[in-house]
């Protein structure tokens, strides 16, 4: 795909141990590698505003559809979506592409996975950037301390029901998912063409089962303590996030040895869509320093 900034991105299947991922790649082959991890209910297209600028700056950009999503394999078993397994996918992808060390950027669930990889494998991650996602250990501590946040996370409990969430989310051409994106973001963050891309990804066989598997595994197979983050870390946080309160950001920062937060007062959970230029400047400054 030729982009407006002149860079080229292309998607291909990459075979890993046990499954294959659909992966978008852009930028020079010999550039410093950066892996971008999307969250729920997005896929690699969730980084459409970041791929071009990072590639144009000389980075080799790698953006997988994570397991259970869009063009990647979608295992049936809930246990296949354990956090450790999701993190291993990132390491397997890096190994397959020949990356010894790499920068890691994650949003939402992708940020949780990125925190996990950086905590458990600090020798592999050179720089870490997180957008509106809690460190796994901070997630549990905040939920215990903050009843209001527990209420805001009601959907995690709802997603544990067998079969019913898939049926409800698919009703009326995925109206609930489309509505959630539009309702929780600033006007204009998701256009008509964006929603068509997302709807196509959600409609693939077993996609909703895979996407919800991440939430089900979190409850049925809770991860062990991840540990502290030793690598330089940038946390970007939209304060108007309706699902994840700012306490997640501050408690995640407390688990980072070399970290800072950049707050976006007018942005929501969908920070990279609402403030793409500012996010790109922050990422380029952090990853290139």
Q: In words, what does this structure look like?
A:
The protein is α/β, with parallel strands linked by helices. The chain has one domain (9-287): 3-Layer(aba) Sandwich (Rossmann fold). It contains twelve helices and eight strands. The protein has helices at residues 48-56, 83-96, 109-120, 136-145, 147-152, 154-158, 164-183, 192-202, 207-220, 247-253, 271-274, 276-287; strands spanning 9-16, 19-26, 33-37, 60-64, 102-107, 125-131, 233-238, 259-264. The chain has an eight-stranded mixed beta sheet with strand order 1-2-4-3-5-6-7-8, sandwiched between helices. Helix 1 (48-56) links the parallel strand 3 (33-37) and strand 4. Helix 7 (164-183) runs antiparallel to helix 8 (192-202). It is globular, with a radius of gyration of 17 Å. Mean pLDDT is 94; it is low at 1-6.
Helix content: 40-55%
Distance between the termini: 29 Å
Total separate domains = 1
Q: Return the CATH class.
A: Alpha Beta
Order of helices and strands: EEEHEHEHEHHHHHHEHEHH
- Annotation field: number of helices: 12
Strand arrangement, largest sheet? 1-2-4-3-5-6-7-8
Low-confidence spans: pLDDT under 50, at least 5 residues? 1-6
